[in-house]
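#struct-help
A.M.: can someone run this one for me? Single chain, 124 residues.
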Amino acid sequence: QVRLVESGGGSVQAGQSLSLSCVASGNPTGRRFVAWFRQGSGKERVGVARIRSSTGHARYNDPVKGRATISQDTSKETVSLQIDNVTPEDAGMYYCAASAGVVDSFLPRDYMYWGQGIQVTVSA
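D.P.: on it. Structure tokens below:
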């Protein structure tokens, strides 16, 4: 079993940086990959960044590529996400998710553990 708890979020001004944290505890096998997803109002949930726990290798999806940094602090079992130069398109619910699978994926169906989500709004 894996437990994921997000923090951060809230309201961010356009052009500023967004910072989120996820404490990922429980069976390490269940969190081979830890990812951040977001879901805008009326939109599908999409993966934005993921990190491979064993190596720290990061990968980013197109909506945030070049603006985001995902990192981990293994001593604190924390995975963090920072998105720079945010726009209104970055607003939505952000979810931390973990996968025990071997497939490197941004598809929600490949992640079996989810946090409760945290709201991010972007003001002009």
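A.M.: thanks! The mean pLDDT is 95.
D.P.: also worth noting: The first strand starts at residue 2 and ends at 8.
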